[in-house]
TrEMBL record:
Signal peptide: 1-21
One matching Pfam family: Phenol_MetA_deg
Lineage: Bacteria, Pseudomonadati, Pseudomonadota, Gammaproteobacteria, Moraxellales
Name this polypeptide is given: Transporter
Keywords, alphabetical: Signal
Domain of life: Bacteria
């Protein structure tokens, strides 16, 4: 009887873990945060292949261009039911700067981050919520670091209208060296065909003593299975006369 009881408990545990894994969602791509939590005993690896940004502006009457390529990554693991630990790294970075016919190339390593993400049970099958407390530690090389640590608290609320369309809102509050910033990111995601889906988001950001910043982003996600996905994304900043674009490719795996 004890052996049968033990086997039943193991089977029930495996079924619960499988169901939880099926509800899991990756945070890539996009700037907005998902509400999914990594199951206990599992590891999610989210890797860019790579991320790219391009900026073009006018300084003292001369056009300057900056191209940045980096391989950022994020590791997520479940600590308890509804709670996960996140470890991130902006990865190796390569940058090219052009101005007035001169070109400069540099490379180095970016900052690391650590965070705790907690799901909030709203007692609704279609409505979900999560909170993320995160610290970006300025450990990168001089040209690729925030210089001062950044502490943030983010919240995300997602609502599934149907199996085809969902929406979410991410709010992020940041503090860096006594300066604050707030970012709002409304997002819509949609099924396209089969395993292919897409998303579109609007980014609003206001930092202390800085002008308002706006951006648009969109991307595609292809789910190889419920534990692996490929993604491609592109975005544009809508800030004055300066041209700024970002995008990239990525892969995410749940082990």
């Amino acid at each position: 009887m004890k052996k049968i009881g033990t086997l039943s408990l193991i089977a029930a545990s495996m079924m619960a873990s499988t169901a939880f894994a099926a509800d899991f969602s990756f945070d890539r791509p996009g700037i907005g945060m998902g509400t999914g939590i990594t199951p206990v005993g599992h590891l999610a690896w989210e890797q860019s292949l790579p991320s790219v940004s391009y900026q073009e502006g006018i300084v003292d009457g001369e056009k300057d261009k900056t191209l940045t390529v980096n391989g950022d990554m994020l590791l997520r693991t479940g600590l308890a039911d509804g709670l996960e630990l996140q470890l991130g790294w902006q990865g190796p970075v390569w940058q090219q700067y052009k101005r007035a016919g001169a070109k400069k190339e540099s490379n180095g390593l970016g900052d690391v981050s650590i965070g705790l993400k907690k799901s909030i049970d709203l007692k609704d099958d279609r409505l979900s919520m999560a909170l993320l407390a995160k610290a970006i530690i300025a450990t990168g090389n001089d040209e690729f670091t925030a210089h001062d640590d950044i502490y943030s608290l983010s919240s995300a609320v997602a609502y599934e209208f149907s199996d085809l369309i969902g929406t979410s809102m991410t709010m992020r509050y940041e503090a860096q060296n006594s300066n604050w910033a707030v970012t709002a990111i409304p997002t819509i995601d949609y099924k396209i065909a089969g395993k292919l889906s897409g998303y579109s988001e609007f980014v609003y950001r206001k930092a202390e003593s800085q002008d308002y910043e706006y951006g648009l982003g969109t991307g595609l996600v292809y789910a190889l299975n419920n534990r692996t996905q490929l993604d491609a994304s592109i975005g544009v900043d809508l800030n004055g006369d300066q041209k700024s674009y970002n995008g990239g490719f990525g892969v995410s795996v749940l082990f």
